[in-house]
Queue: 2 jobs
Job 1
Amino acid sequence: MNRTTQSLIAAVAALAAVTGFAVANAPDDSGDDGAKAAARLPVERTSLLCPVPSSSDLAETSYTAFTPKGEESGKAGKAELLPATRELTDAPKGGDNKEAKKAAKPFLTPKTPGKPVTGEESGGGSPALLGTADGKLAPGWTVQQTTKYSVGSGRGLQGANCTAPDTDFWFPGASSAKDRSDYVHLTNPDDSAAVVDIELYGKDGALKTEVGEAIQVQPHSSVPVLLSTLSPKEQTNLTMHVTARSGRVAAAVQSSDDKLGGDWLPASADPASRVVLPGIPKDATSVRLVAFAPGADDADLKVQLASPNGSISPAGHANLHVKSGMTSAVDLGDVTKGEAGSLILTPTEEAAPVVAALRVTRGKGADQETAFIPATNAIGTRATVADNRAKGSTLSLVAPGKTGKVRVTASEGSEGGSSTSKTYTVKGGTTLGVKAPVPSGLKGTYALTVEPVSGAAVHASRMLEDPADGVPMFTIQTLPDDRGTVSVPQAEQDLKVLQK
């Protein structure tokens, strides 16, 4: 093999490592023409970022880190959760490795796939956290932070899946109304500064803002930005677009309401013509749908509620017209009528991409609490959610097309208990709401993984409840693919393409 060939194959491997945080040997070419499809291999390194949980002295935050068991469990690996704002001391010029950089003490250090590790923080001094995992601990590496506020604005249960850094995020469902305090947290995991732009879109289109341009996020730091400071005009329903013009960040919106509690608003799935929002609680007292069409064309959508018995059109809201570049919102009331449900949006005519999210309210009067459900992708190869407890975890499974079958595995507990699995069949066009399976002899918290068994695609979410003082405190996390595997093209096949 000549030097040029070696360089090209190395470039392909490097590209796979950068885009998928994976380093893997290309599979052998046993065919006579070398034309093989890309292989899906376990990732060998991955990273996640957790936003600053709270500034309140009354907040109690728990962290749960977990890697599912898999084929790569025999390989060595390391995982740790560190302060993203850690201070590093560089070795002096001419120094050796003994005086190299010193990192802050890890907050969590999982050791074994299949066993969750937990930690707790009190008050408002917790920093943003950076989680990294490699080897056997990388595939499906998942971290959740859950914060409970007993009083004050945003009181309730606020949960967030820590997310991978990226360059582009959509947040339909944000707000700059006077009764809301929505902060977007921008966290930079890298050694160089990131430059971020924030665009806001209301019911009449883009809002003028110069403050949201070229926001500097220094290395290993987190910047909270209050949305109401970006534009003088109050907007009850906003869509926010976060883009990194240089570097990369993790972005998440923390929403607090003076009367309705609060939660984290995760980013919507990438714009698509068909959208699934899984897991509206059966006792939801109010549901608001917020949608945005980022393309050049308007979107005409058919709105359907996938209930346990089939798909129906909500009364008075069978269709939704979303103008290009404008945020549309519709209040669906208690749309689930006492049954678990999910919302499915499909084009009525020509397809146009949209992003969407739901704001869900439970409770009545002074005892109301809210959570958000963004549009989410199907579970893919496997989906994982951490921080489940003996009571209060409800799983919602929806098959927007044809029937699908999935296997749900409850891991062993963080302090003891044996793993267990159960298989569920989700009929096409329906939502199946079930109490999550619990490990036998559970002590501590546990994780859930969902894997397809057969049939069509299934989308999922998990609701975690922890009521207090008459308030139905809850949070909802969606379950897209946990990025445990990555598509790695065969080097020699890509080489042939490059040489043509």
Job 2
Amino acid sequence: MQHTPEAGKTPRKPTPADLEVVGLVPLLEPFYRGAVVRGLMPAPLREAMETHGLTPRHGAVLPQLLAGRPLTVSEIARRLQVSLPTASDLVGGLSRAGIVERAEDPANRRRVLVSLAEEFRPPLETFIVRRTEPLLRALDGLSADERAGFLAGLTAWVREVQK
């Protein structure tokens, strides 16, 4: 999603303190390059993603399912802050690839529950461990207050980017 300034508002000029933060953002870009991500992904997961043309947006669904409790498409949409049709499309692609399974909710037959296919749980867990290692090391060095501030800042940034 491309972020554009709100109509009628002039974007504010960054302060020197803002520029210190802004200057760090491009240093994270290599962490998100496709080759880096693919290199950390276990073969079964990588092959399923590539064979079915799945994108990082599809991949964003998967960590939501690791806790083990099946989620509805609505819950996935809410967690990812995407529309219900977008979440449904993402789940559909993952389902066609066999990475997730869809089942009728026994408590409400109109709802569909989405869960991670058991064969993909170990490769996804391995990938998440590899992928989150730098972040977890950074978080380990923060106090509880610093962690809370970091989380608040990232959450606010995500909210602004997704407007």
